[in-house]
Amino acid sequence: xxxxxxxxxxxxxxxxxxxxxxxxxxxxxxxxxxxxxxxxxxxxxxxxxxxxxxxxxxxxxxxxxxxxxxxxxxxxxxxxxxxxxxxxxxxxxxxxxxxxxxxxxxxxxxxxxxxxxxxxxxxxxxxxxxxxxxxxxxxxxxxxxxxxxxxxxxxxxxxxxxxxxxxxxxxxxxxxxxxxxxxxxxxxxxxxxxxxxxxxxxxxxxxxxxxxxxxxxxxxxxxxxxxxxxxxxxxxxxxxxxxxxxxxxxxxxxxxxxxxxxxxxxxxxxxxxxxxxxxxxxxxxxxxxxxx
Length: 292
Ligand code: NAP
Known about the structure:
Radius of gyration: 19 Å
Strand content: 15-25%
Shape: globular
Mean pLDDT: 96
Helix content: 25-40%
Number of helices: 10
Bound molecules: NADP nicotinamide-adenine-dinucleotide phosphate
């Protein structure tokens, strides 16, 4: 039952109707006994500033921010956490007495997923990241901050990989090597072979999205490695299938989505999030219960 004290939370994106976040957060609030509701908001790009002002004016307690507004929303906020500055993007806004603070829980969400769901320590070896867009940036910064000793960024547009590698190395002090999307690159093959983690941060293999081959030797990702795909539709992506065939442990991006939500909820409420309730709601909403 909603009443005069109901707290309103939500997600801002465009489009946003497909989002799994309302299912995840509403189930968590029910579980925690919070008098709150989480709803989707879909402002057009030219009204984003008004939408953010509306958070303040209406006393909306907190929102997530998704594509295409994670960077565009920044000028309208009062402050950013150090982490959000480093990520250059905001996926969570908290509203404390009208002060809007931008946070980033995407990268930290991946780290928590790796540690809690896969017992994987990012400090355990180098990592290879495919892509140089927003997801790759979040993943690269998060891995470097979590102790990953060396990173490779592999991207179709090589200039973007070079630029992102420079940015991440400068921000974190971790060596980051850019590579073109070239299957024959011997140095990439060598680095991939001694890596602990390979992460797909491109839409390659996404349902209805791009097809394509990963520029790796055929036996990679392989035994002793984690092949993590930030894509989660389909639940078993071509990158995961390739890794599983070679004996790698595999994971899809639902766990990253789950833990970015967990961290956002904990930021808003100050309470430990009911992780398993949120996981169940997310997997049910995705229609893929049971697939990691
Ligand atoms: P983005 O900023 O648009 O970047 C897309 C990246 O993919 C670019 O590096 C692009 O290369 C590359 N790419 C696109 N099509 C390609 C192709 N056919 N072959 C090779 N590379 C290709 O997008 P994003 O926000 O980073 O999102 C990327 C993926 O991450 C999405 O598919 C999304 O599902 C996933 N994601 C998951 C989560 C999660 O919580 N699980 C969160 C965020 C994103 P160019 O630079 O050459 O264009």
